[in-house]
Amino acid sequence: IYANKPFIGGRKPSFVYFGGGTPSYLSSSQLFHLTDGMKALLPWDEVKEVTFECEPGTLTDKKLKTLHEIGVTRLSLGVENFDDHILEINGRAHRGGEIDRAYGYAREVGFQQINIDLIAGMLEETEDNWKACVAKAIEMAPDSITIYQMEVPYNTTIYKRMKEEGKLAAPVADWETKRRWTDYAYNELAKNGYTVTSAYTAVKDSSKVTFEYRDQLWAGADLLSVGVASFGHIGGTHYQNHHDFDPYVEQLGNGELPVYRALTPSDDERLIREFILQLKLGSVSLQYFTDKFGTNPAERFAEPLQQIADWGFLSIEGDRVNINREGLLQVDRLLHEFFLPEHRNARYA
Fold first, then answer.
1. Which tens digits make up the pLDDT trace of 287-338?
2. If we measure between CA atoms, which residue out of 180, 165, 112 comes closest to residue 142?
3. Between the CA of residue 164 and those of 89, 150, 157, 160, 168, what are the distances in Å?
4. pTM for the whole structure
5. What is the mean pLDDT of the chain?
6. Domains and CATH numbers, the chain
């Protein structure tokens, strides 16, 4: 449907990202069928990167060879933790042995980049467990390591269980602990040759390891999003597909786009969005935004920039706005200072 639209047809993607609902559950034949169809409609000959998110327990030697054959260049393994008990209690389907097996297979296949995800502060995680996870990740020596701090969104099973039990706080590590653990991880990674390149990622060789999806998206690139509940961004308009399977399939069956809602932000909202996303990289150029939006961020955001600087997390040096390590560890909280009043404390599905 999209390929027949004038704003999509004839264009060629520069990155492809398979994420969200664990696409590695698809079989090899399904993966070939899916990607062959995609390439026929929107050719991949100008694609710089194809990222594929995987649940380690779903990966076999055959499936990894399939992923490599269809063109995946960046394999991202949702490891999260190496301890079987913690994986089980947090509802993860894979176990430690499957992580080792999948990673070994992936290295043999020869993907250009392998990333592993870790989550700091999962249910029943301890200081010793976290340090063991960091040591194991360093031993594996992936090209990049992405670290998220455990959150419990209101629409998750854990949150629903909390409400049923009358608990006011999530049964996970507090934010101070999660930030301390993440800082520990980044320090250990730095000792072993990694470079922290954003609030969430450390890479082994920053001259070779790239993340086109993140960098292009955070710079305002279009994102044609086609999955259930997925968010996209085309020609300045943001949209989300139906988050329930039945209406999603029904609209597709009727030859209609499965879009549930959409919003076209103002120029100022576009500036805010791109500025706060790039701040997650730790350093941004003021001139870049002045040239692109006709507005100097140092003037437009004078108040929040000064506030975060007063807290000791930010500095402006010449053309660069820099956020230090302590600031990056809590950047998602700090970025609320840039939100418009009507967007603060708002909850979105």
1. 999 999 999 999 999 999 999 999 999 999 999 999 999 999 999 999 999 9
2. 112
3. 18, 21, 11, 6, 11
4. 0.92
5. 93
6. 2-215 (3.30.750.200), 222-263 (no CATH), 278-343 (1.10.10.920)
Regarding beta strands 201-203 and 231-234, do their DSSP bridges make them parallel or antiparallel, or are they unpaired? unpaired
Nearest to residue 276, comparing CAs of 297, 303, 299, 306? 297
Torsion of CA 229, 144, 31, 25, to 10 degrees: -60
- In tens, the pLDDT along 248-299 reads 999 999 999 999 999 999 999 999 999 999 999 999 999 999 999 999 999 9
